[in-house]
Amino acid sequence: MKNSPTFEEINSLFANSDPDKVWDQMAAIVCRIDPGYEFRIVRAIFDDVLRLFGGEYPGYSSVKTLYHDLTHTLDVFLCAARLMHGLHLSGRALTGDEVSLVLVATLMHDIGYAQLEGEENGTGAQYTQTHVKRGVAFMQRYMTERQFPASFVASLEHMISSTDHALNFSEIAFPDDRVRLLGQLVATADLTGQMANRAYLEKLLFLYLEFKEAQFGNFRSLHDMLRQTRKFYEVTLAKLDGQFGALYVNLALHFKDTMGAGRNYYMESIEKKITYLSHVIELDEADLYSMLKRDGIVEKAQAIAAP
C-alpha cells in the first residue's frame, strides 16, 4: 500500500521550470504506457524547442512573452503525458505514433510567439490572435525539412489548432476520430496544465500585459481581468466537459497508479486558485497585489508596466 503523497510532493507536480526534470518525468510516464517507446525523434524536437525559446534557433530571437514562456509549454507537455497515461489506464490505449503526436503538438502549440530575426519589436505578444497559425506554419516548415510524412504533419496541424480559443473545436476538420481524440487531449492539457501552475494567478499579471500589448480583449484594468477570470474558468469547465470529452477525469487514474491516491490534483489545484481568486477580486486594485506573492511576479510586472 502506497503512502499518501505529501504536500511537497503535490506542489512539485506543478513546478516545471527545469527542462531536464520535466523530460525525465515525461519519459518515466511514457515508459509506463509503452516500455519500448523510442524517444529519439521527440528528444530532438524537444531540444529544438528549447533552442527556440532560448534564442539559439537559426533565424529566430528568444521568446520574450512572460506568460507564454517555456515553463508554460513544459506545464502543458507534462500534463499531456500524465493525461495519456490516465487514458491508457482507462483502456483507451494510444499507439506509439499517437504518443509522439501529442508530445510534439504540446511542445509546438505556442511557438507562434517566437519572433524572427528582424521582428524583435515588442515581446511577441502582438501575435496573440495569430500565434496558433504562426505556430502551425513553423511546424509545417520544420517537419517538411525533416521529411516527416504528410499525414503526421496534417495531424499535428489539427491538434495544434485545437488550442486556438478563437476556433470552434467542432468545426475543425479532423481526418478521423483518433486525431480528434488527440486534439481533445492536447486542448485539455493546454487548459489544465496552465491553470494548475502554482503561480497561475500571479502570472495573470503577465497575461494582462500581453493582451494590452496585443490590444486584445475588453479588459479595462488588471482588476477587471481578474474578475473576468472567474467567467473564463466556468467557460473552461464547460469546454472540458463538453467539446473535449471530459478527458481530464483520467488524470485521477494516473495519480492513483503513480502516487497511490485516486485524486485529480490538477483540478484540485485549479479549484483552489479560483476560490482564492474570489477573495482577491473583493479588494481594490491598489490592494489586491498584497494577495499575489509568488515568484516575485507582481514586482516584475509592475516594473514593466511603469512609465
Structure description:
The chain has a single domain (7-305), classed as Catalytic domain of cyclic nucleotide phosphodiesterase 4b2b. The mean pLDDT is 94. The longest helix is centred in the N-terminal third of the chain and has 20 residues, at 70-89. The chain is 61% helix and 0% strand. The protein is an all-alpha fold and 307 residues long. The chain contains 14 helices and no strands.
β-strand amount: under 5%
Order of helices and strands: HHHHHHHHHHHHHH
Tally of domains: 1
Rg (CA only) = 19 Å
Shape: globular
CATH architecture level-2 label? Orthogonal Bundle
CATH class: Mainly Alpha
Uncertain parts: none
Distance between the termini: 58 Å
Give a brief rundown of this model.
61% of the residues lie in helices and 0% in strands. It contains 14 helices and no strands. The termini are far apart.
SSE arrangement:
Blueprint lengths: L6 H6 L6 H15 L6 H15 L15 H20 L6 H13 L22 H15 L4 H12 L15 H19 L4 H15 L7 H20 L9 H9 L5 H16 L4 H4 L8 H9 L2
What attributes characterize this protein structure?
307 residues, mainly alpha, Catalytic domain of cyclic nucleotide phosphodiesterase 4b2b, 61% helix
